[in-house]
Amino acid sequence: MTMTFTLTRRAVVGKMALAAMLPAIAASPLSAIAATSTPKPTPEEPATAALLHTAFPHARLDAAFYSGAAGRYLAEIAKDPAAMAEHRRGLALLDGSYIAPFAQLPEMVRRSMVARYDQEPFFKALIWRGAELIYRDAAVWKMVGYEGSSVEYGGYIERGFDDIDWLPAAGGAK
């Protein structure tokens, strides 16, 4: 028995629109209810949140936002003992460099510490995943002026991106 599967353009566009809406669904009140039942903060959370804030500084994002991102990151790497051990090793580097824990250091000192340790494996892992955790948040999209996916609005051409007058006309005609 042979099964055939046909995929129309309309079905593909519909699936793309659904995929584009997933971040908005994740930011719905249902996820807010789930977020209220988050586990108790780990000892690594303050330093991880401070590290995320130092790496991705935005004046309009508060400490609670960075703490939430740090909590999600730590929950993910807690499933991998090697990743958690490497993260703890990196935080120990940061905490052991001065007389105060990394999270309590002034911003300028934290920036210099990040520059010093930015090639460490723990930092690279945090940057890759931290960027996604921060910039997938719809609140951050509004803050930086990103309107989100254009698929459900018919694309970008009819939304102010059709003004490329610097591009020569087709065929070289002016």
TrEMBL record:
Alphabetically ordered keywords of this record: Signal
Signal peptide stretch: 1-26
Top-rank taxon, per record: Bacteria
Record carries keyword Signal: yes
Protein known as: Twin-arginine translocation pathway signal
